[in-house]
Amino acid sequence: MGIQGEQFIRPSVERVEDATLLSGGGRYIDDLGTRPGTLHAAIVRSPHAHADLLAIDKAAALTLPGVVAVITGSDLLDITTGLVPALRVSVDARAIAVDRVRYVGEPVAIVLAADRYRAEDGADLVTVRYRGRPAVVDPEAALIPDAPVLHGDVGSNLMSDRSFAYGDPDGAFSTALHSLAVTVRYPRNTGSPMECYGVVAEYDPHEDAYDVLANFQGPFSIHAVIARALKVPGNRLRLRTPPDSGGSFGVKQGVAPYAVLMAAAARVVGRPVKWVEDRLEHLAGSVSATNRVTILTAAFDAEGRVAALDWDQLEDCGAYLRAPEPATLYRMHGNMTGAYAISHVRIRNRVVLTNKLPTGLVRGFGGPQVYYPLERLMQRIARHLGLDPLDVIRRNLIPADAFPYRTATGALYDSGDYRQALDIAVGDGGLSALLGRRDAARAEGRIYGIGFTAAVEPSVSNMGYITAVLTPAERAKAGPKNGAQSTATITLDPVGTVTVQVASVPQGQGHRTVLAGIVADIFGIPPAQVRVTTDLDTAKDAWSIASGNYSSRFAAAVAGVAHLAATRLRDKLARIAAAQLNLKAEDLVFAGGRVSSRTNPDAFLPFARVAATSHWSPGLVPDDVGSAIRETAFWTPPELTAPDAEDHVASSLCHGFIFDFCGVEVDRATGKLRIDRYVTMHDCGVILHPGMVEGQVRGGFVQALGAAVYEELVYGEDGAFLSGTLADYLLPTATEVPDLRILHFTSPSPFTPLGAKGVGEGNCMSTPVCLANAVADALDLDTLDLPLTPAKLRALVAEADEVPPPAGHRPATPAAKPGDRTLRGAGATVVAAAPEAVWALLLDPDVLASVIPGAHGVKKLSDTHFTADVTLGVGPVKGRYAADITLSDLDPPRGATLTGTVSGGLGDGGGTGRVTLEPDGSGGTRIGYTYEAAVGGKVAAVGGRLLDGAARVVIGGFFAALARRAGGTGQPGLMRRLLARVLASTGVRP
Amino acid sequence: MPKLSAASRHSVSFTVNGVARSVEVESRTLLTDALRHGLGMTGTHVGCEHGVCGSCTVAIDGTMARACLTLAVAAEGCDIRTVEGLGLGPGRLGVLQAAFKRHHALQCGFCTAGILMSLDTYLRRHPDPSREELTLVIGGHLCRCTGYAPIVAAALDAAAELRGAQKHPEETAHA
Ligand code: FES
Ligand code: FES
């Protein structure tokens, strides 16, 4: 039949999406209207990493005009349950805390009001009483027997512990000539799309049905999780997505708990509820990639040929295990040998919970955590044996004649010629010139290194891979899970125009453009005549659990199924036209807007007329055709089988190949990393739209650059969240992005309808470790963890370096431990009064009230115990706090220790200070003080960089005021007081 | 500016893309909210509400400004331009917009309005910018999708086209 006109590899046509988006006409979730009476939500969140939730006082908030309701976790207990993970554990993963909070940012109450401003006013007035518990932040510490346990019912923080063996790892390790291990602590980061989450939800009590609009990206297996959490059957949860979404990178899977929360809130209040997340909430409370501790050991021979790998992975999923976790740990299960032919593998996978944000999908999903140790290991092997790392990589690559190649752990690699792709990259990418640049730089004493990475990029996830977390016996009991249903619907309307609906839920990738081209080619009409819609409505559109935008499944699966649906419809139309033209369907071609005879171009019908036939003239449609109006196709690849009894896991359908190399220079004085050249070779099968593939590679590369060098979700040892703004969580900007050389090699996938493979995540997997390998080469290091911040690199340079830094530069100091944010300070001031008089003032609540900056009322509970209400500002964050101050180690009138805590909606803090009073020899007193303090909650997250200054202002202000109160300072009064004020207002200690 | 009461609402008037508009706001209402929810001009986006991402950038009296850091009442009497005013007419893209489309300089489009407004404002004053200058301007914005390279390419291309097409750039409708 007429396959003519199919030309899927088309030049980079301009996108149909763009004109609207460029003109401000996008319809993102916050751009859509809401029903009259819709309430706006603001969320009160925990400032504590781990605490009992004692009481929530709603009264003050409810008196505020415009505030309609304050809803807490216990209000929702009956109408919701937790978000079940893929693992049966006694973790009640609710979307809102009930009696305990387990991470900073966890929702504790929802304030509903007439508009967002009033809702936030209300949130400020909700008072929550907590009783702190010790927190555990580090995954290894969480496993220590007396570690704080997050979920008492489980008894420990260990959620899962599975061991796997493939081939004969014991034999391979015992006979190997060499063995070597790397230990990697992979940090936390996130996708941070520019648009945050949004949900609009309502509930119909008569039908017991929810209607939820959310900028959710899938996978729609989560629809079942949301419905279950809302305690309704699937057909009573209508989940819709807006037409446009401002990026996701996996992260918008994590809107699911908020969809539950807002839907349940709408039910309680009996009105529609809208919530749009702000950036501070997003960084603290959306979703993080997992941090992971990996010990990877290899057995290898003298040539660096790896016989066996031993993986010990400790995965940290944060405070709750939420669906689809612990999927990050198993997504790569079939790919644990990367691009290499390694037959013997041992794996131990443990999942642990800690007092941090729960994890979920983030671009790369498990890939960065695997390739970092694997590719660091390949470099280490080369160093250990004195070989060229490129030779070691090349020697271990899966040979071209082995495809389709079954990996030891069960994936079936579809196609590739890794060695040839690598050789082309080395040649076209100019490796020899780069080696020359390294030699030249080193000859000048500069710190320059080259890194390599080979990686396999999996795409189109098997929905059954996550069941590998269960034992084969548990799986057998639950029944097999597998496949990846993709779907497309093509509709012909009464004037014969074509509409395509897919469930791929694009987040900016241009799916509509690609699909219009594919479908238009099949029907032989211009792409502009095909309309594609991608907003999804689970009540009306075709979808399945694999629907959505993740695992780079569009080109491989969704484009393919659209092709399938269009082809089926075209074949029906061919038979309709054949009947009218009195020709055979096989003799027809679809081209130029016509259905015409292959041999006699004069025998034709306009496409639109044929396409409209089933509407207007069903009598003309041959009986066995049925009707040609709407065709919905589903497609799931047979290769995605369920995990077998030996735990072989075909985790993904397609496997692209990436080979990266780069040259970097580390600035000796500042530790800044300069990327001199970066080359990335991709084999992603057939390319459907070169411009979009380039966009995916460039965008992924820059996100990876961020993860490698700038971005980290940082937590203090007590679980305080420290990277709460985009000034703390640093995304790369245009000025940080180096030139990127992109190369392609094409091995079509035999497993997908169009030969395409996914390409969206590869650089997130390959680039962080490629940069790290280059830095390790530059600094001659064995051990190196991300992120490669200037502070860390400067410290490493100092360690590695015998050569003194050039004159004029301060010697490198060790990087501050991330998370140590103790504020320390000391100062002195002179007061005109004698020590005894100052001492008396210090113990007088009225005096304290007048000298503590921002104090509203000081109450004396005992001679040595005071409480106060204090208003403090840190940078832009001003808030009310309750302060509690105790005096101890009293040594009147010479000294005392002050211990204090402050707590409030914006955060909490505590510290101690020692005050000493000495006669200054002229009748006055010299007051000296030292302090140490730590701050948590929102203030720590957003104001970390400002805290030192703020503490100095507050403490300096206290003593300046005390000095004034004591009768002025030893120096002439007015000028000094003015100066103290000016200095205080600029953050400098008087 | 007169002292405004926090308790009452105020009518604020300014021109948006050449059209006189008034909107009722509180004294604390952000310009982003006034434009988006008060006037329904949702092309200006909010990515962070703390001045870092640049999504909310508009031109106020010819200068680029973060609308999320601007109070609506502070825009009284100002001349505001937003992304909705960049086209040459309904369905007709301006030079800068068309260059973005050609170069695939957007994916999700969420950051795009802000970047367009910064570049439009900059190119009006600096018709012959270098790649480095444009990179610095774009460096004031966060885009999570594109990796920036196509945005820089589009900006350079648009600048060249605007120079070639117009003898007196300041007199003509830009971008
Ligand atoms: S929203 Fe204004 S700078 Fe981010
Ligand atoms: S295009 Fe998505 S953030 Fe720039």
Automatic annotation (TrEMBL), chain A:
SUPFAM superfamilies: Bet v1-like, CO dehydrogenase molybdoprotein N-domain-like, Molybdenum cofactor-binding domain. Keywords: Molybdenum, Oxidoreductase. One of its GO terms (molecular function) is iron ion binding. InterPro entries: Ald_Oxase/Xan_DH_a/b (IPR000674), Ald_Oxase/Xan_DH_a/b_sf (IPR036856), Ald_Oxase/xanthine_DH-like (IPR016208), AldOxase/xan_DH_MoCoBD1 (IPR008274), AldOxase/xan_DH_MoCoBD2 (IPR046867), AldOxase/xan_DH_Mopterin-bd_sf (IPR037165), CO_DH_gsu (IPR010419), START-like_dom_sf (IPR023393). Residues 23-134 form the Aldehyde oxidase/xanthine dehydrogenase a/b hammerhead domain. The keyword Manganese does not apply. Pfam families: Ald_Xan_dh_C, COXG, MoCoBD_1, MoCoBD_2. Gene3D superfamilies: 3.30.530.20, Aldehyde oxidase/xanthine dehydrogenase, a/b hammerhead (3.90.1170.50), Aldehyde oxidase/xanthine dehydrogenase, molybdopterin binding domain (3.30.365.10). PANTHER family: ALDEHYDE OXIDASE 1-RELATED (PTHR11908:SF132), XANTHINE DEHYDROGENASE (PTHR11908). This is Xanthine dehydrogenase family protein molybdopterin-binding subunit.
UniProtKB/TrEMBL annotation, chain B:
It comes from the Bacteria. One of its GO terms (molecular function) is oxidoreductase activity. The keyword Nuclease does not apply. CDD domains: fer2 (cd00207). InterPro entries: 2Fe-2S-bd, 2Fe-2S-bd_dom_sf, 2Fe-2S_ferredoxin-like_sf, 2Fe-2S_ferredoxin-type, 2Fe2S_fd_BS, Beta-grasp_dom_sf, Diverse_Oxidoreductases. Residues 10-86 form the 2Fe-2S ferredoxin-type domain. The keyword Aminoacyl-tRNA synthetase does not apply. Keywords: 2Fe-2S, Iron, Iron-sulfur, Metal-binding, Oxidoreductase. PROSITE patterns: 2FE2S_FER_1, 2FE2S_FER_2. PANTHER family: OXIDOREDUCTASE WITH IRON-SULFUR SUBUNIT. This is (2Fe-2S)-binding protein.
